[in-house]
Amino acid sequence: MGLAVEMRAGQVLLVLLAASVVMPAKDPLLNVCMDARHHKTKPGPEGMLYGQCAPWKDNACCTANTSSEAHRDQSYLYNFNWNHCGVMPPKCKRHFIQDMCLYECSPNLGPWIDQADSSWRRERILHVPLCKEDCEEWWEDCKDYVTCKENWHKGWNWATGTNRCPWGSMCRPFTQVFPSPKDLCEKIWSNSYKYTTERRGSGRLIQMWFDPVQGNPNVVVAKYYAWKKRSSPARMEDVTPETGRAACAVPRLTLLLALVLLTAGWGSYGWGSL
């Protein structure tokens, strides 16, 4: 009788462990949208996204209307005026549009979502590793433009309802405000991005530009950094209690149930064979 109970318990334990592998808990760092003004609550397919936002149409955190507005010189999204120091060249503007498409549409920024103390968003991205080419091409195509600010997130004059250069500031060449691609990528949006020396296709950085026909390379990158964030003891404090519980819920429940069954001698209650 004792041997039969142990065998049944072993079978149940194997079934439960297999279930925990087949049906893992959803990783809260993957395939998510940040809590911000124009983001959807969860990612999903969009029938048609406009222009440079189109690569995310199969799984996006933005709507078609948001993608269209992202291409306007001054849209209702943020009332932000790209032309605050004269007309921004098209070759430069396309990088800012691509930057906005990534921010609004990508569901692969979960490992870098951080809390934001702002009236228009509760979350932001911080230190997203951007590939070398994206930063360098952005800087190269914008170096002939002029601007009056290093940090475009704050400090503008909003008296007219749109961003204007602060009183007393001067419009200067991009190369003076941002001496290098690293300065541009890291400073312009309050460290939203982090300049890296890695190149496209390395699987270790986020790409603003990609060919959707080849698939979204940022999916694999997000998985890598989500794993890295969870496996690094030094960064465990970055994972909220809710996140930790969500990630471990199924394995803990499985082990607890198996332990109860093993210690309670459940076979003596007349349960049938599996």
TrEMBL record:
- Pfam families attached here? Folate_rec
**Into which family does the record put it?**
Belongs to the folate receptor family.
Query: In its keyword annotation, does this UniProt entry include Lyase?
Result: no
What's in the keyword line of the UniProt record? Disulfide bond, Receptor, Signal
Q: Which InterPro entries match?
A: Folate_rcpt (IPR004269), Folate_rcpt-like (IPR018143)
Superkingdom per UniProt: Eukaryota
What taxonomic lineage is listed for the species of origin?
Answer: Eukaryota, Metazoa, Chordata, Craniata, Vertebrata
Signal peptide, first to last residue? 1-24
Name the source organism: Gallus gallus
The segment(s) forming the Folate receptor-like domain are 32-207
The molecule here is called Erythroid-specific folate receptor
